[in-house]
Amino acid sequence: MNFNKLGLGLFLLFIFLIAGTWLNRDILDQTFYNSKVEGVIIDSKFDFFGRGTRKYQLSDGTSFIFADKVLMIGDSVFKEKNTFYFKVYKADSIGNYQFHESKYYYNAPHD
User: Fold this and answer.
1) Which tens digit of pLDDT belongs to each residue from 55-111?
2) Tens of pLDDT along 6-40?
3) Would you give the distance in Å from CA 36 to the centre of its chain?
């Protein structure tokens, strides 16, 4: 009987962890959409629940999850409010940022 309670407890804990991860991801997605973003990538971590995606932290405090491996620490990202499109700038050999490419936030809802 104790084993059944332990198994049920572990199962419920697992469900809460998964639900919390997905809820956090939805909050990050909506925050990214609503925010004007202008910052340099200062940290990058593998997102275990994102199937090979990475969570990027910007110098302005914004975080977002993205799958494309073109983004690196030190890249500059700019995005207007209420859109999922953003621009990536990379530093050249003397430290000036040059436009690299536009990206569409992969996790955005599609119309």
Assistant:
1) 889 998 877 777 777 788 999 999 889 888 888 999 888 989 998 887 766 555 443
2) 777 777 777 766 665 555 556 656 777 788 888 99
3) 15
The pair of structure tokens assigned to 50 is 């994102």
Distance in angstroms (rounded) separating the CA atoms of residues 79 and 71: 14
Taking the C-alpha atoms of residue 100 and residue 41, their distance in angstroms, rounded to an integer, is: 14
Q: Is residue 111 part of a domain?
A: no
| Residue 13: DSSP 8-state | H
How many structural domains are present in the chain?
Answer: 1
Q: pLDDT band at residue 43, thresholds of 50, 70 and 90?
A: very high
Note down the domain range covering 14.
2-104
- The verdict on residue 77 lying in a domain is yes
pTM over 0.85: no
CA distance 84 to 104: 6
Does residue 110 lie in a domain region?
no
Distance of alpha carbon 95 from alpha carbon 84, whole angstroms: 27
In angstroms, rounded to a whole number, what is the distance separating the alpha carbons of residues 21 and 71? 23
